């Protein structure tokens, strides 16, 4: 009852006209930033911090939270329509969402993403409100061995279990890990794979890799087949509402994605990329067992519903370690931590008592912001989908310009643009010869986390490999991985026998 009373007080503060306006401004800005690849919510909040310093702290953080949530909603729009994720957490959505758009189901893909995001946000924020102390305890007990187990699970689940060809999947993962190692090693200071170029000392940006592989690679692939495809896409018009069949196929992935995303937001494991890829892999594996796996890689609605739910559930619960421990789980959360310090506050266990008015108003505003995002995004799904009516040559030329500007504005470096086209050519070759893209992306994003976690675990144990399987959580993750590999091999052997 005390929690409900505190939440009621938070709603009373959040629904004041000024705070509602700030929340609306935040979600609109976040949606715009989410649509534009290369900008990101971290940059948007960093630019807003000095502007909002004269505001009341409660209103400022309500606006920051709106930007944070809006970015996750908006990132799926260009991922589905243009195969260019606005946020790295929307990469998994692009795989099936873009294929749905090409199959004249862009409004349904966008509506699935919006409804899944809303459902996951509401469920996750509700759990944060009532169970944040338990979530804080979970975050405290997570160490380098557990992080390493998570990354190994994500690596093999994406490359070996989910992809149709295990050898090609592992080869793609190796390419991604090699790209992730470019630059100066943070622990030893060694220079790796830079080919003598000083511009590569800082490594290759995730934005460059993501946009290059997905956007430029897709443009080159389409251009190579332009003689066999029509110049203009025809998009089915109509309302964004999902049919009964779409809803029956989406609600389970929404729930599974939410369940996957919630714990990953609590633990500082590097953002929403792991749960979104795991959700995509889970839905693809389950669809194969039900005999519907043929629709994956051709535009399966489950491949949009699950990752988007996981993405937004992770975003909501990532506030738990930020508020309860002062530990940011993403670049955006790190900027918000700096904003707390600017206002003279120290996030941690005492924040819930010393600044209870701010915390509960912030949590209440998350419910309001999620509802605003639903109202803003759902009616616009068919309007966004009409972008695909643009003739193909103009549309893909626009994608190239859009991607180039997004990469250039990240660091204002021409070298990044050149690197973008090199990686785009790599993405074209991967598509041309049937290598999956997802393992490359997961290797680039999680490679540094895996390396750092392994080194720290070895340093903690003074070289004893047994530390990697010392904790119950790590053992559970490795057990799930072994079980998934065994089941995958058995199913493939059974399919071969049936085909024979």
From TrEMBL:
For this UniProt record, the keywords arranged alphabetically read as follows: Membrane, Transmembrane, Transmembrane helix
Q: Where are the transmembrane segments?
A: 20-49, 61-82, 109-135, 147-162, 204-223, 319-340, 360-381, 393-408, 414-430, 437-454, 474-491
All residue ranges annotated as the DUF112 domain in the record = 20-441
State the superkingdom: Bacteria
Q: What is this protein called?
A: Putative tricarboxylic transport membrane protein
């Amino acid at each position: 009852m005390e929690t409900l009373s505190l939440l009621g007080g938070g709603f009373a503060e959040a629904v004041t006209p000024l705070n509602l306006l700030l929340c609306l401004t935040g979600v609109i800005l976040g949606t715009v930033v989410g649509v534009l690849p290369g900008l990101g919510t971290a940059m948007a909040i960093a630019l807003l911090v000095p502007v909002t310093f004269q505001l009341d702290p409660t209103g400022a953080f309500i606006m920051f939270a709106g930007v944070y949530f809006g970015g996750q909603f908006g990132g799926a729009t260009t991922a589905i329509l243009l195969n260019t994720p606005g946020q790295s957490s929307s990469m998994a959505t692009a795989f099936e969402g873009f294929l749905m758009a090409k199959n004249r189901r862009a409004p349904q893909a966008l509506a699935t993403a919006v409804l899944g995001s809303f459902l996951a946000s509401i469920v996750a924020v509700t759990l944060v409100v009532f169970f944040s102390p338990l979530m804080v305890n979970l975050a405290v007990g997570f160490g380098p061995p557990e992080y390493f187990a998570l990354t190994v699970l994500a690596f093999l689940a994406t490359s070996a279990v989910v992809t149709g060809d295990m050898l090609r999947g592992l080869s793609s993962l190796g390419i991604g890990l090699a790209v992730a190692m470019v630059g100066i090693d943070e622990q030893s200071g060694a220079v790796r794979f830079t080919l003598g170029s000083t511009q590569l000392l800082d490594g290759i940006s995730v934005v460059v890799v993501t946009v290059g592989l997905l956007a430029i690679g897709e443009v080159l692939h389409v251009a190579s087949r332009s003689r066999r495809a029509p110049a203009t896409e025809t998009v089915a018009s109509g309302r964004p509402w999902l049919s009964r069949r779409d809803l029956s196929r989406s609600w389970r992935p929404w729930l599974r994605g939410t369940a996957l995303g919630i714990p990953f937001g609590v633990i500082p494991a590097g953002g929403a990329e792991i749960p979104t890829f795991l959700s995509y892999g889970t839905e693809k594996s389950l669809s194969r067992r039900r005999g519907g796996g043929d629709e994956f890689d051709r535009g399966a609605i489950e491949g949009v519903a699950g990752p988007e739910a996981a993405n937004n559930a992770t975003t909501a619960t990532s506030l738990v370690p930020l508020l309860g421990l002062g530990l940011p789980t993403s670049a955006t959360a790190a900027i918000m931590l700096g904003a707390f310090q600017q206002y003279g506050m120290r996030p941690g266990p005492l924040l819930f008592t010393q600044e209870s008015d701010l915390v509960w108003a912030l949590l209440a505003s998350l419910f309001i912001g999620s509802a605003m995002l639903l109202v803003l995004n759902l009616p616009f799904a068919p309007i966004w989908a009409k972008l695909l009516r643009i003739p193909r040559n103009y549309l893909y030329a626009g994608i190239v310009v859009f991607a180039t500007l997004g990469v250039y504005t990240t660091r204002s470096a021409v070298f990044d643009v050149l690197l973008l086209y090199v990686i785009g050519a790599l993405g074209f070759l991967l598509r041309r010869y049937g290598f999956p893209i997802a393992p490359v992306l997961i290797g680039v994003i999680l490679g540094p986390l895996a390396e750092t976690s392994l080194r720290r675990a070895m340093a903690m144990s003074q070289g004893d490999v047994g530390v990697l399987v010392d904790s119950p959580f790590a053992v559970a993750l490795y057990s799930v991985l072994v079980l998934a590999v065994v089941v995958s091999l058995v199913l493939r052997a059974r399919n071969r026998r049936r085909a024979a």
